[in-house]
Amino acid sequence: MNRHIFALHQVARRTFSSCARRQVENKVPQKQKMFQEDNGLPIHLKGGPGDAILYRTTMVLTILGEDARAFRSTAGPLKVELAS
C-alpha cells in the first residue's frame, strides 16, 4: 500500500517539477496596442467578436430579467372574495 502512495508521490513530483517549464510568450504588449488604438469602438467591444457576443448576450438577459421582474410585480395574487 505504501509503495503505491510513494509511486504516486514521485509521479506528482515529476509532473510539477520546475525543470520542465514551458516558456509562455508575453502577449501583454500586443493586447495593450489593440486596446489603445483609436478605432471608434468602445473599450468593451475592442476584444473582437467574442466580446460582441458576450455584450449582446448580457444585454438580452438583462432585458429579459427586467421584463420578468416587472411582470411578476404587476401580476400579483388575485383577490378572491369569500361568500358570507
Mean pLDDT, as a whole number?
Answer: 83
Beta-strand percentage?
A: under 5%
- H/E series: HHH
Based on CA inertia axes, which overall geometry fits? flat
Regions with little confidence, pLDDT below 50 for 5+ residues: none
| Whole-angstrom Rg | 28 Å
Largest sheet: none
Percent helix, as a range, is 55-70%
The tally of strands reads 0
Briefly note the structural class of the backbone: mainly alpha
Q: Could you tell me how far the N terminus lies from the C terminus, measured between alpha carbons in angstroms?
A: 79 Å
Report the total helices.
3
Family: Belongs to the cytochrome c oxidase VIIa family.
Organism: Gasterosteus aculeatus aculeatus (three-spined stickleback)
InterPro entries: COX7a, Cyt_c_oxidase_su7a_sf, Cytc_oxidase_su7a_met
Pathway: Energy metabolism; oxidative phosphorylation
Helices and strands, with pairings:
Elements: H1 2-15, H2 28-36, H3 49-74
Main location: mitochondrion
Pfam families: COX7a (PF02238)
Membrane topology: Single-pass membrane protein
Structure description:
58% of the residues lie in helices and 0% in strands. The protein is built from 3 helices and no strands. The N and C termini lie far apart (79 Å). It comes from Gasterosteus aculeatus aculeatus (three-spined stickleback). One of its GO terms (molecular function) is oxidoreductase activity. Belongs to the cytochrome c oxidase VIIa family. Pfam families: COX7a.
